[in-house]
Amino acid sequence: MLNYIWAGLIVFSMLFALATDFSEILKDRFRNQEPFPVTLQLPDSYNAQDRRTEVQVVMDSGTYQHFFGTQERPAASYAGVLVQTQDGSQLQFGSNTTLPEPLLTMQAYHARNDGDPLRATLPPAFRPDSSVVTTTVQFAPVRFRKLKDIGQAALDFAETAASLALGLIGVLALFLGMLKIAEAAGIIHSLSRFVQPILRPLFPEIPKDHPALAMISLNLLANVFGLGNAATPLGIKAMEELQTLNPSEDTATNSMVMLLALNTSSVQLVPPVLLVAIMGLQINQLVFSITLATLFSTIAGILAAKFLSRTRRNRASDPMLNAAS
Q1: How many alpha carbons fall within 13 Å on the CB side of residue 170?
Q2: Where do the domains of the chain lie?
Q3: pLDDT tens track for 217-238
């Protein structure tokens, strides 16, 4: 079901992007390939042979607003660099310059790396003969920017997913191997007997001394202490143990739903290891907020799971009740 939801969201986002891009093309929002008038203030020591010359770029506010059809007003001037190339003269705005819209969007569209400046080409006949020159610049065209952003985001997250999956292989192998050793040594059985008084009210369907209780307790403890990578294989193992009690292969039991609710609420008393690595000692300022948020989210998750399990619709699809009847 989740696959269909994700596929629908991707298709919807693509359609939305296409509609937005076609709207921008029809309105000619970025004035593609149209020359825009600017005034360049050159230094007195300007030499046409110099490859790079620092200049000041002046754009008239009224002309800018009329040209791009916007209410944005440019600053009095912008720092720029006049670059002489084999293909002609090129104007680069300063990398730290905050440009008005839609120039800011055009800069982000053509940037290959963070901080890349906005570039524009000057006419082939550009030959300044004074320190103040009025000329035109032509920006690179912007087309289908939303579709490009969505495609790039899809590729980036696909790479992130692959990296995350590969990174979890070692953690999964380590903790599942330790669980196998603990199961053979009888530790899991002892732990399940110890945590029964606490977990039995939340998981009444699980038989006494069943290994699923121990797996659930280990999963919850890993979450409590902020060990997200360790909680993942423990949660998978707990679900596998719960599935052994499930008479249905395609419908979750109330115990499975409760375990998922507890993991989703992310009950934690210790900040996650990732946040500690990023924030260092500053994480101490968030300990109370994290504890309070996870406490209320856990209570909400438990109450929601209990309430939904008792509704007529969910009781009709409960595999445990159907098997008993």
Answers
A1: 4
A2: 1-30+143-171, 33-141, 186-324
A3: 888 877 776 666 677 788 888 8
